[in-house]
Amino acid sequence: MKKYVLALLSIGVLIASCSKSDEDRFIDTKGLTVDSDEVLVQDFMWKAMNSWYFWQEDVPNLADDKFLDTEEGIQEYIDFLASESNPADFFDNKLSFSEDRFSFYSEDYTELTQALSGVSKSNGLEFGLVQFNDSDNIFGYVRYIIPNSNASTKDISRGELFTKVNGNTLTTSNFIDLLFGDNDSYTLGMASIENNQVTDNEKEVSLTKEEGLAENPVFLSKTFDINGEKIGYLVYNAFTNEYDEDLNNVFKNFNEANVQHLVLDLRYNPGGSVNTARLLSSMIYSTDTEEVFLKARYNGKYQSFLEGRNVDLNDYFGDKTTEGSAINTLNLSKVYILATNSTASSSELVMNGLAPYIDVVHIGENTRGKNEFSVTMVDDKENDYIYDPTRINNINRKNKWAIQPLIGRNENADGFYDYTSGLVPDINLEEDLANLGVLGDENEPLLARAIQDITGASSKRDFTVKVPAKIMTSSKMFTILKDNMFLDKPLEINK
User: Fold this and answer.
1) pTM for the whole thing?
2) Contact 330, 262 (CB under 8 A)
3) Which residues, 6 or more positions from 156, have their beta carbon under 8 angstroms from its beta carbon?
4) Which listed residue, of 2, 20, 26, 425, carries a Cα 20 to 30 Å from 193's Cα?
C-alpha cells in the first residue's frame, strides 16, 4: 500500500491519509510527557522543531540527547521550557538557528491559515518604503492597489508617494506603529517628485483596513503584437493555490492568442505555494511528468526516515492542476522574468527550477535569496504537528499557537540551490520613482526593456534611472505570510 506523510495540506484542499501506527510515525517524543498549561506552547514548539527543523542538528537545544527520558531529565526539560515565559521569546531565543531569516510563529493558527489562502485584513494598498539619504525619515510609494479593496475606492494610484501618516512624518522608528499598528484607519500625507526630489504636497488620502480581503494574485494579463512578435505579459503577485485555475486560464488565453514570448512579472511576488510554482513552471515550459522540477532536502533525521522508505524526493513538472484540469503550456524555450529584491521564495523557485531547461532572462535586480521551504505546524501530536484543515477538532483547544519553521531546501534538477544572496539579473534595471510607469503599459520601463530584447529593435530609449526605488521594506513584509514558501503536496511512501 501507499502511505502519505503530509508535508502540508493547503487550505481548502483535502487529501486523505492512512492512519499511522506507532512504528510508522516520524515524531518520537522520547517519553518527554508534560502536563502543564504554563509551558503547553513551548512543549509543542520544542517537539515539532526537534523533529522537523531544517537546522535541528545545528541547534544544541534541539539535540535528540538534550533531555533524557528519566525523572531528572524530564524535570530539566520542564525547567528549560519555563525558561522563557513568552512562547515567542522561547522560539526566537532558544530554538531558532542564528542564520535562519524566515521561520516565524503566530499566536492564532486561524489567522495564519487564512493568510495562506490570500485572505487578510487590509486596506488594499501595496507599497514600498524608502529611507531618505542621511536621514531617519522615510517615504512610501504605491506599487499597486488590490481590486475591490478600500484603497480601490479612493483617489490614489500606482506611483504616488507619501511621507506622513495622520500628520506625523514617517521615520525609521515610528513607521511600524503608524502603518502597521492597531489602528485600522489612517490618513496619508502625499508627496510628489520635483526636480528628482521628494516634496510634500497638499493631498491627503484616508484609508481603512477591512477584514476578509481576498487578493487574487493573477493581477493582470495582456497580449501584445509588436513587430510581428506575439508577447504575453502576466503580473503575478503571490503563489496562492486557491487561484491556480485562474492562472491556468491565463495560459489558455495565451495559447489561443498564439503567444510566442512570455514576460512574467514577479517584481512584487514574495512567494507562497511550492506546488503552484511547479504548476506555473509547467505552464511555461512543459507538462512532461518525468522531468524533475525540484529536489527536496530535509534535516538529517527526516531525510533518513524518507530514504529508508524509498521516498522519491524529486518533484516533477505537472500535466494537471490540483482540481484535475489539463495544464495549458506554452512549451517555451525562453522566458523573460521581471524580478527585484522583493521577489522571493516560490518566485525564485520558478526561476531556478526552469534554469536547467530553458533560457531564463532575468530583468531587474537581485532577488531576496530564499531557497528554504516551510510547513504550518499546530498542536496536533497525532498528525505529527502538521496542520490539516480536516483535523481542526484534533488540535489542542488550549493552544492556538502555530509555527511556520523552515524544514527543507529546494534544489533544481542540476542540484543548484546556492542563491541565498539572491539571483543576479541578466539585465540590471531598477524601478525609477520618477517614472514608475503603469503596469501593463508597453512603455513601463521594465516591460519595455523586455520587449526591446524580444523584438531586437534598436531603440534610442534611455533607461537611465533618475530616482531608484531602493526599498528598505514593503507592506507585504508586515503580513503574516511575509515571503514564506510552503509545501502543499504530500509525499508518497511505498510500504
Assistant:
1) 0.88
2) yes
3) 125, 142, 145, 188, 190, 205, 207
4) 425
